[in-house]
Amino acid sequence: MTRVLILCTHNSARSQMAEGLTRAAAERLGVPLDVHSAGTEATRVKPEAITVMAERSIDLSRHTSKTLWDVPDAQNFEYVITVCDSAAGACPVYPGRTERRHYPFMDPSGGSLDRWRAVRDQLDAQFTAFVQALRDGREVPPSFADSAPVPLP
């Protein structure tokens, strides 16, 4: 099973939404993934993230904010994906077999629910493309701009 870690600064919004969306895409596409998210520091999962994800039938209500060191087997991932510039700069070094990607997304914190939905939809496009690439045996997209998703079957 391929292990994926999604990192952000506080593990409160973007990384949490990306984790839920990646799991949903993997289930929908039949790709066996072990998906985790973490932050460089732990806070709490923001209620707006829970709300906009519930609109997609993805339940984040039991998710907790955690640091990298709270994740099981924290140094053993095939993919480590950062979703904000701060986490990209603070991400630790991983062994040679780990592929790193940086998919930066706007922080929706403090914005309207429409802003949260826009970020959720961008995350969905990015991480669906990521899972599709894994399913199809293609290289995973190097950036958000390079990841126009293939239509779902």
UniProtKB/TrEMBL annotation:
Which Gene3D superfamilies does the record cross-reference, listed alphabetically?
3.40.50.2300
Q: Which CDD domains match?
A: LMWP_ArsC
Question: Sorted alphabetically, which SUPFAM superfamilies does this protein's record hold?
Answer: Phosphotyrosine protein phosphatases I
> Which keywords describe this protein according to UniProt?
Arsenical resistance
Which residue numbers delimit the Phosphotyrosine protein phosphatase I domain?
2-133
The record's listing under InterPro entries reads: Ptyr_pPase (IPR023485), Ptyr_pPase_sf (IPR036196)
Tell me the PANTHER family matching this sequence. ARSENATE REDUCTASE
This protein is called Arsenate reductase
Lineage, please?
A: Bacteria, Thermotogati, Deinococcota, Deinococci, Deinococcales
